[in-house]
Each structure stands twice: as C-alpha cells, then as structure tokens.
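mind reviewing this stuff:

——
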Amino acid sequence: MRPDGEQSTASAGSGGKPYSAGVQAAALAGFLLASLVVAALGGLASAANVTGWYAAADKAPWSPPNGVFGPVWTALYAAMALAAWLVWRKRTDGTRQAMVVYAIQLALNLTWTPVFFALYPALGTAALWLGLAIIVALVAAVTVTVLHFGPISRTAGLLLLPYISWLVFAASLNWWAATHN
C-alpha cells in the first residue's frame, strides 16, 4: 500500500500493466451509462407516482421539495460511477470483489424506487415497509462497498460517503411514509 492509502495499480495477481487511456475512457463511460440506466429506470417508476399518490401522501416534516431529489441523485450517481471507475482501473487483487459488492448495491438501488413508488398503489403501506427494508439493506451494501473501495482507492471510498448520508436521510423519509400512510 502506498503512503496515500491506495494500493498500487500493478499489485501481485493483477494481471499486468495499467489499462490504455482509451480503455479507461470507455470504462468510465460504461460506469456512467450504468448509473444513467439505473437513474432512468428509477425515474420511470417514480414519475407518475410523484404527482399521483405521493403528492397527497403524508410526508416527513423534514422532506425537501420534490425538485431537490433530481439534482442530488444526479450528483450521487455521477460520484458512484467515478468511484467504481477509480477502483476498477487499479486492477488489484481486491478489485473483483469490490466490483461485485458495487453491483449488489446498484441492484438494490434499482429495486428501491419501483417498490416504494410503483407498488404503493397495489400494495399500500406494505410497499413502503418493503421499501424501507430495501433501503436499509442498501445502506448496509454501500457501507460494505466503501469498506472494499477505500483500501483500493481512498478517493473512491470518500466519494461514496455522501451517498450513504443521503440514503440514511432517504430511509428516514421512507420510515415516515411507512408509519404515516
């Protein structure tokens, strides 16, 4: 490990020299695209419901206006993609496992929005409680991701800390919705 807390790019077992600039640029674009797809699918699941049942729902007193969520999530998805790319390009022995836990948290992220927003009209409050279980699992998964990313790239680990903070905040909003609707 280097003095800055990051593992070197060509650790034992990593398979060789660093990726070319073209491969790195394509990978970064791929990580950004994956985040965009997750965001877009979440947007599709929530779009009709934000102005539907959610508009009339009892929301937490600390809930921000709906217009805040889009810009915050955009910044978080970009940071997530950048963090994943920083870890991927290191090619350390821990990179594969770090990418697996990243994929798990991304899948949980993708699952939460349709469960919370789209299932409520069909399942009622049960969908909100299921959403709470998913977002709590997501907080745990992102925490594990930080623990895997940090030793490989301190910057990548730090980039995910605002995401965890936002998820805890979102979980508090989800809890309120589940207990008051």
About this structure: The helical segments are 21-50, 53-56, 66-88, 95-118, 120-123, 125-152, 154-159, 161-180.
